[in-house]
Amino acid sequence: MQTKFVEANGLRFEVLEKGTGDRLALCLHAFRSTPSPGVHQIPVLAGMRYRVWAVNQRGYGRITRPTQVADYALPHLVDEVTALINAASAKSVVLIGHDWGAMVAWCFAAERLHPLERLVIMNGPNPLCFRTAFRHWRQMRRSWCVAFFQLPRLAERILTGNGGAIVRRMFGGVALPPDV
């Protein structure tokens, strides 16, 4: 497995890569995460003759970071999937999304911007079903973080308070040892 940097959609992306060829397995990570939690799946997919790209999405890792909140809107993230596929010169694509990456993957697939061999969704509802379910108190209570991050400046204020202690606690449990 190697780390490389890929220019796509006017940005520089950090990508974990394993395997070769024109069959791409593009992995989109979860919110509060990086590609590293999926490192155990990468060799399996490469063994299935895929070139695996586990990409750091906008705002994560050592990539170009747009400065405006609007730059992180879902249409931009969906466009980046197309740009990454094009940068890989992939003829066949398996798109794998986990959590927030699943939402991006669902939206990409719905737009039909590039044919997919397969769409793999982990821990992410179909956006249309979610929108319907989110109208009910029970689902809103379960998905409180979605609404929380839509409140202007409040989430930033809370997450950066006390020197970012909450963020350190959130990410502290997902870090891998340096040798992994």
In short:
By secondary structure, the protein is an alpha/beta fold.
Report the order of strands and helices: EEEHEHEHEHHHH
Largest sheet: 6 strands, mixed
The averaged pLDDT comes out at: 79
Please state roughly what percent of the residues sit in beta strands, choosing from under 5%, 5-15%, 15-25%, 25-35%, 35-45% or over 45%.
15-25%
Strand order, main sheet: write it out: 1-2-4-3-5-6
Question: What would you call the shape?
Answer: globular
CA(first)-CA(last) distance: 11 Å
CATH superfamily of one domain: Alpha/Beta hydrolase fold, catalytic domain
Q: Can you describe this structure?
A:
The chain has 180 residues and is α/β, with parallel strands linked by helices. It has a domain at 2-124: Rossmann fold. It has 7 helices and 6 strands. It has a 6-stranded mixed sheet, sandwiched between helices. Helix 3 (100-111) links the parallel strand 5 and strand 6. Helix 2 (74-87) packs across helix 3 (100-111). The chain is globular. The termini are close together. The model has no long low-confidence stretch (mean pLDDT 79).
Write the layout of secondary structure elements.
Layout: E1 2-8, E2 11-18, E3 23-28, H1 41-47, E4 51-55, H2 74-87, E5 92-98, H3 100-111, E6 118-122, H4 127-133, H5 137-142, H6 144-148, H7 154-172
Parallel strand pairs: 3-4, 3-5, 5-6
Antiparallel strand pairs: 1-2, 2-4
Helix pairs in contact: 2-3
